[in-house]
Amino acid sequence: MRMEAHIHGTVLLRPGTTTAQIEEALRPWLEYIDEDNMADAKSVHPDEPGLVFDRRRRVLEVCWTGDVGRSFHQTVAGALAALSPYSEEAAAFEVSYYLEDGKDEFSLVFVGPTQDAIFEAQRGLMIEDVRSLLSRQFSDPEIAQVVALVNQLFERNVKSGTTITQTSTSPSEPMPMPAGRKHLH
Known about the structure:
Radius of gyration: 17 Å
Order of helices and strands: EHHEEHEEHHE
CATH topology of the largest domain: Alpha-Beta Plaits
Strand content: 15-25%
Mean pLDDT: 88
Distance between the termini: 25 Å
Number of helices: 5
Shape: globular
Structural class: alpha+beta
Number of domains: 2
CATH architecture of the largest domain: 2-Layer Sandwich
Helix content: 25-40%
Oligomer: single chain
Strand order of the largest sheet: 2-3-1-4-5-6
């Protein structure tokens, strides 16, 4: 089944990282879309820049959409994870799938210099999401109670040696989006 996929995210890279190193990390993705390099990896939407490495700022910015098949998710997750040795700090890439039947799926792929950095990025994003969701209905003190509980859960996982990537539902696996909601950046 063919579908449209959109990948969006930005990662700060270590000093000295080259375009060749980034392209080698992203090679599975580039091969999947039958392109030789990032410059040729154009988005199907002309207003999206695609995959852009700003050497001066040491930033890889991704805003790319393309037609893909079901096997693309493993390919792009692996390619993005291969950027980890070149990353200066942890970052999340949003991967959205727009299926022909009108259902959409969404996942996050984290990149980071260490598992601890990725874990902290996951925690930070979870807390940001919880705060945003709860702020529609609850006061700051009530939100703080839930955030404290989320922090306790993360700490419990750290103490038990279990990270989110070791649990049965990985954050990089696509999940259905709630009905009637489009994920836009």
